[in-house]
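Hello forum,

I keep getting stuck at the same step: I have a sequence, I want structure tokens, and every attempt I make locally crashes halfway through. Rather than fight my setup again tonight, could one of you with a working pipeline run this one for me? It's a single chain of 137 residues.
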Amino acid sequence: MFLNKSNKVSALFIFLWLIIACADSGIIEGGRFSSSQKSSVHAFYLHDYVSRDKVREHALTLIDESKDLSASFYFSHNSNVPTQSLRLSKNFQDAIDIMTQYHHSLKYVSFKNETGQITFVDCTSDPDNKLCSGSKY
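Reply #2:
Ran it on my machine without issues. Output:
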């Protein structure tokens, strides 16, 4: 009888561990552009339950010190972003232009400029910000 309870407890712990280990972070990679000119653009789909702080933390983990320019765009999970077009972009500005064409479903943008300054914008509260609206970076 004791062995049977022990097996149940072990199975429960394994099950709980699998749930935690496989938990959906709510941030799904949607595509990326990377150039030989040391620039990159990432696109992500974002579930509604993901907090602003979690997105900001995620964006900071993507900052590549070897890149001069980098941007991460976080879209609503039900968006339809042209990830193939992003991957085949001609250059950094082209990739940015492709992403901002979908500004209506854009939630957040993280941007690192040539001087290393990092900007994080909440496009739901600041939709006219140039990183959200499609103006030249």
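The mean pLDDT is 83. If your local run keeps crashing, start a new thread with the error log.
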